Amino acid sequence: MPSFPEIMHRTFFRTLSLLSPAAQGVLLRRYFDWWHRNPDPWKLATDSYERQKYLSTLHHLPPRPYRRIIEVGCAEGVFTHALAAAYPDAEITGVDVSERALARARERVQDNARVRFMRADILTHRPDEHFDLVFCSETLYYLGRTDRLRQASARLGELLAPGGVLVAVHPWPEATRLHHYLDATLPRLGEEVYTATYRPFAISIYGTGPV
To answer: How far apart are CA 122 and CA 154, in angstroms?
Structure first.
């Protein structure tokens, strides 16, 4: 059962989704720029829960030669940095709506020429590239109502190269609702739910080939 602050948090973002996609994107960008006025506002680089979630996610990735990877909602690039260490030969793109967050992400991986960052909104950005691995964590609930979740799920599917893998990680049991829209876009290859933690989460894997 979500806490009262979490319920109010989700209600706020559902209200924002009553706006046009462009207007919603502008407000989300301002919201996250405000949060990132100070470094690492959610302690993604230091919290043991976040570190365990990153390790669990990497553990469940199908063993494939990922040459092109994108992380949607990369924030300050903590997991992007972990992906770069796990796949040193891959070209990795981190995407976020906050330029403040991206500036710190670039500093984090400044010595790795294979990693780049760009500011983009999953609802309005139409990519001209495709990726072997698409990663989306703790992002979809910011998009609000059904039509925006459906649109974002379609956009995530469009990022995949043939035979590519999409990994979505969100709080459980909310992930059931959020990942439902991905289920309508791509075959689900597997899921792992972690409940032995103060904030349960689910890792769902999608794609067009076997795990």
So the answer is: 10
Q: What angle do CA 53, 106, 23 make, to 5 degrees?
A: 80
Instruction: Please state whether beta strands 201-207 and 188-194 pair in parallel, antiparallel, or not at all (unpaired).
Output: antiparallel
Mean pLDDT computed over every residue of the chain: 91
b/e for 142-159, b at 16 or more Cβ within 10 A? Answer: bbbeeebbbbbbebbbeb
CA distances for 23 relative to 12, 27, 32, 124, 137, angstroms: 15, 6, 14, 11, 23
Domain ranges (residues) in the chain: 4-207
* pLDDT per position as a tens digit, 157-192: 999 999 999 999 999 999 999 999 999 999 999 999
Instruction: Specify whether the CB–CB gap between 17 and 143 falls below 8 A.
Output: yes
How many CB atoms are located within 10 Å of the residue 2 CB? Answer: 12
Cα 171 from Cα 202, distance rounded (Å): 6
> Which 3-state string (H, E, C) describes 128-142?
CCCEEEEEEECCHHH
Q: What CATH topology corresponds to 4-207?
A: Rossmann fold (3.40.50)
